[in-house]
Structures are given as C-alpha cells and as structure tokens.
Amino acid sequence: MRGLVWERLFWTGPVLLGVSVLVFLLMALIPGDPALALLGPYATEANLDRLRAQMALDAPLWTRYFTWIGQVLQGDFGYAYSVDRPVAEELWERGRATLLLASAGYLVCLLLGVGAGVFAAARQYTWIDRSLSVVSMVGISTPAFWLGLLFVMVFSIHLQWLPSGGIQTFGEDPSAGALLRHLALPALTLGLVAAALVARFVRTQMLEVLRLDFVRTARAKGAGEGRILWCHAVRAGIVPVLPVLGLQAGYVLGGAVYVETVFQWPGLGRMLVEAVTQRDLLLVQGGVLLVATAYVLVNLAADVLQAVLDPRLQK
User: Fold this and answer.
1) pTM over 0.85
2) Looking at residue 85, what DSSP letter applies?
3) Concatenated DSSP letters of 276-307
4) What are the φ and ψ backbone dihedral angles of 79, each rounded to 5 degrees?
5) What DSSP line would sit under 203-246, residue for residue?
C-alpha cells in the first residue's frame, strides 16, 4: 500500500507542472494585447507600455514562465490588474465560495447517487430499477448549464420559491437561511448531474456484491434484507467505486465554471470567465492552477482511501 501511495504522490508533481505549462502557453499564445484588453481602447501608448513592462510582456516566453512559476512556489501569484488586487487575495475570496458550492453539490451527488444505485440494485428488473436507470441515463446526457437554466425557469420564475442567482439578496442582512436558499439551486444542478453517473456505477457494483457467498451466508443466518444491504453489501461494494467518486468530485469542481455563470455565484468559475474575457493572464493562470491542484489532490485522496480500505491493495 505504501508503494501505491508514494507512486501517486510522485506523479502529482509532474502532473501539476504539466498543467502549469499548458495553461501558461494557452494564455500566452492567445492573439491580442493583454494590456490593451485591460486598459481599453482609449488608453494612451505610455500607459500601455507601462503596463506591458509591469506584466513583463516584452520578456521571452520561457523567462516569463520560470519567473511566474518561481513566484508561485513562493506563494506569490502576482497582481490581478482587472480587479486591482493581488491574485492570492482574489483566489482566497472566490475559492471559499466555490468550496461551499462544490461541497454542497458533492453532498447531493453522494446522497442521491449512492442511494439510487443501491436502491436500484436491490430492486433489480422491477419498474423502480428501470425508472432509475432511465433517469440516470438522462442525467448523464444533460449539460449542467441547461439543467441550471431549467431550474431557474421553474423554481425562480414560475414558482418563485428560490432566488435565481447570487449568494445573498441585495439589501438584506446575510444569514444562514438566506445562504441556503441561494445555494439550493446551484448545488442541486451540480449534484444531480454528477449523481447520475455515480448511480450507474454503484448499481453495477452492488449487483456483483449481492451475488457473493457472504451475502448468501448472511441470508442463511436469518439476517434481514435491510441489514444485509446497508451493513454488509454497501461496505463491500462502495470500495471499488471510490475512484469514480474521486473523479466526480473533480467534475463538480470543473462544472462550477458553468453553474456559477448561470447562477451568478461569486466563485472561481465565474472569476475565470471574467478574467479570460479581460485577458488578465495572472488571474487566469492562478485560478486554473488552483482548480487543477484541488482536482489532483481529491483524486489522490480517493486512491489512498481505496488502498486503505481494500485488502487486495495492502501489499
């Protein structure tokens, strides 16, 4: 098991390094002048030259990359000219909002995905199983942004039950209840799409587990079906699904880009969309690197947890 953990840790560094190179090159090679995009078409040439010098746009590409990555390793992500503040401060503020949304969406994914998969496996070939299979296939095929727009139309415009966007209502004092009302629709949008895939994998794995000898032995000893299902089968069947749960955690983080834009949620996703539009290179590079790091670490945690829980990997 230690060998597997060290192997995963070893590859984390090269993956993040590759991500940093890729995002830097993509932003650097986009046509256009970042200084002109930030200052606008009416900026004077002197101001443009001053900003280009501050952003080191006149330096060679490789020099700019090594300067940037060296500063990042020291905790300095640079200065975000589009919001007039250090990149680290902007990432910290936006990252907390995204973490809240992603955590709530992932909780929805776990509860509905695992629950629906187990329930469908326990009712194999019944109308419940077929209905959940159809719903999960529709969920896998549904884009998150389209589902978000549908939720806004139904629950915000027609029924007027929940707010259509933002993290709090303008002019009202922030409270936990108001935050939950604003969080409900974006969290459901993220969680439902991710839960659809989880339900398919959990159902398949649970069907295999329910045919194993220890389940038949538990039935022969007189254990109830509920106890067999939730106390024995789920514990054995959830371990192989852990890598999928890790990937879905990454999907929830990536899907926040679309969902935050639809619901005007002030997180990293919406920040990246605005920063790309304004060609704020350092802000985009820092945001993408932060999201990629979170994605890699979540999947690393899922692999380590699987190695701890699966005796076959403890060698």
Assistant:
1) no
2) E
3) HHTT-HHHHHHHHHHHHHHHHHHHHHHHHHHH
4) -115, 130
5) HHHHHHHTTSHHHHHHHHTT--HHHIIIIIIHHHHSGGGHHHHH
Q: What does the pLDDT read at residue 179? A: 79
pLDDT at 148: 86
For 17, 99, 219, 236, the CA distances from 260, given in Å and listed in that order, are 27, 12, 48, 36
- Residue 84's Cβ-side half-sphere holds a number of Cα atoms within 13 Å equal to 1
**In the prediction, which pLDDT does 310 show?**
62
- CB burial readout 118-151, b (16+ within 10 A) else e: bbbbbeeeeeebeebeebbeebeeeebbebbeeb
Question: Structural domain boundaries of the chain?
Answer: 88-313
Structure tokens at 72: 């990042």
> For residue 175, what pLDDT is reported?
67
Burial pattern 163-198, b for ≥16 Cβ within 10 A else e, equals: bbbebeeeeeeeeeebeeebbbbbbbbbbbbbbbbb
The residue among 244, 214, 245 whose CA lies nearest residue 232 is 214
Six token digits for residue 36: 């002109």
Q: In this structure, what token pair is assigned to residue 75?
A: 């905790």
Contacts of 26-32 with CB under 8 Å at 24 or more apart are 27/281, 27/284, 27/285, 28/61, 28/64, 28/65, 28/281, 30/279, 32/279
Which residue numbers in the chain have pLDDT < 50?
171
Phi-psi group of 4: left, alpha or beta (phi > 0 → left; psi -120 to 50 → alpha; rest → beta): alpha
SS (H, E, C) 116-169: HHHHHHHCCCCHHHHHHHHHHHHHHHCCHHHHHHHHHHHHHHHCCCCCCCCCCC
Which CATH code of 3.90.1750.10, 2.40.240.20, 3.40.190.80, 1.10.3720.10 fits the domain covering 88-313? 1.10.3720.10
